[in-house]
Design brief:
By secondary structure, the chain is α/β, with parallel strands linked by helices. 30% of the residues lie in helices and 25% in strands. The radius of gyration is 23 Å and the shape is globular.
């Protein structure tokens, strides 16, 4: 990073961590967080090292937690009636809308994608029960845009809206933008007003990016979730995705809360500094890696929740992490599950600076103790396992 950008990043980091104690204090007002963070002194958590000592809260746990204490599982300080809107997202996970003009922090992402005040935006994210439509709607209106709340589907009617209102920008999935463009071309409709897009919620492969460019549309992508809002977004001409303001992003080894070195693939953990709806070390289950400088990530790189059922028992990333903890002399680990002679077979591939049989035997014993299943251990050269965040590889044939 240039020196001035590095200086700005350092100042921004300091500002975020100055706000963190207040967010922790707010979280402790919620009964479930009071238990989850018991014994924590908010005033002492003012840097990444201190934050990394706090326990993670996994998104995958939230449906069960919320069922135990509806609607929010005890992780929201206030009552449901104190929020403007109340949503549900797949899981189901119940979520309140935060306060403010741009509650999910999306206006900067739209601005980076070239959206400007006074333009018309076609919003094809859903408005029914889920927050997707409102996340992008509030962002566009905070920027000064007029929004067509189209939602997904109803292609023919959307073509009518495009010709009538002449939107300059589109927000929605990249797939549905292609559907609209193809339908417009087939029907001979004028779609030329759309010259920019901010897409999310689905893969955006280079082939589709190139197709949009050929059709005169500058499309950027954003990484956002229903519970957090905007996490990172593309800025044209720059690598990766820029981490959004107002949140602290960590990348940890899957199954743990331990930060990985810069550049290594791991699970995304976010801390949202909202006093009404704080999220503290919230593990999303998505994989990414930090780019040099720490303000950008590579984007979505897959899922971290890699549990596999082996011989009728679940094996989880947390168990692989426990093996690593017991054997600090090892590097990356990957548990490979295959089939042989109509039976499940586990092989733990472990980076090590030696091929000592005694070490392999000791690790195999730890594998059995932790998973309650037998498996073999293959010691491999340091750096030979892929840097992709995968700790369990299920390679059994499907079907």
């Amino acid at each position: 990073m240039p020196q001035d950008e590095t200086r700005a990043s350092t100042a921004h980091e300091s500002t975020l961590f100055a706000r963190l104690p207040a967010a922790l204090a707010a979280a402790l007002q919620a009964p479930a967080y009071a238990t989850h963070l018991a014994g924590i002194d908010p005033a002492s958590v003012t840097d990444r090292a201190a934050l990394a000592r706090l326990p993670v809260l996994r998104k995958g746990e939230m449906p069960a937690r919320q069922r135990e204490a509806l609607p929010f599982g005890g992780f929201v300080p206030g009552a449901a009636g104190g929020f403007a809107r109340l949503f549900t997202s797949p899981g189901p996970i119940f979520e309140p809308q935060r306060a403010g003009e741009d509650p999910w922090g999306g206006a900067p992402a739209l601005a980076a994608a070239g959206f400007r005040a006074g333009e018309v935006v076609l919003n094809t994210f859903g408005y029914h029960l889920t927050p997707g439509g409102f996340i992008f709607d509030t962002a566009a209106r905070a920027l000064g845009c007029a929004v067509i709340p189209a939602g997904p589907g109803n292609t023919e009617q959307q073509l009518d809206l495009i010709e009538a209102y002449r939107p300059a920008g589109y927000v929605g999935t990249p797939d549905f933008l292609k559907v609209l463009l193809d339908a417009g071309r087939t029907a001979g409709r004028d779609m030329s007003s759309i010259v920019k897009a901010l897409v999310s919620g689905a893969a955006f492969p280079p082939s589709l990016q190139a197709e949009f460019r050929e059709r005169g549309i500058a499309a950027c992508q954003a990484y956002a979730t229903a519970d957090v809002g905007f996490i990172a977004y593309e800025t044209p001409g720059e690598p990766g995705l820029l981490v959004s303001d107002g949140l602290i992003l960590e990348i940890v080894r899957p199954g743990t809360g331990d930060p990985v070195p810069e550049g290594e693939v791991g699970e995304i953990v976010v801390t949202v500094l909202d006093l009404d709806r704080p999220l503290i070390r919230y593990a999303l289950g998505d994989l990414t890696a930090a780019l040099p400088g720490g303000t950008r990530i590579r984007g979505w790189m897959g899922r971290a929740d890699q549990a596999a059922k082996v011989k009728g028992m679940f094996v989880r990333p947390e168990q692989v992490a426990e093996i690593a903890r017991r054997h600090p002399e090892l590097g990356r680990l990957r548990l490979v599950v295959t089939r042989a002679d109509e039976a499940d077979v586990m092989t733990l591939r472990a980076e090590a600076g030696t091929t000592d049989a005694a070490l392999a035997e000791a690790v195999a014993e730890t594998l059995r103790a932790v998973t309650k299943l037998r498996g073999t251990v293959a010691l491999v050269a340091p750096g030979s396992l892929p840097n992709d965040g995968k700790v369990i590889a299920d390679e059994r044939p499907v079907g």
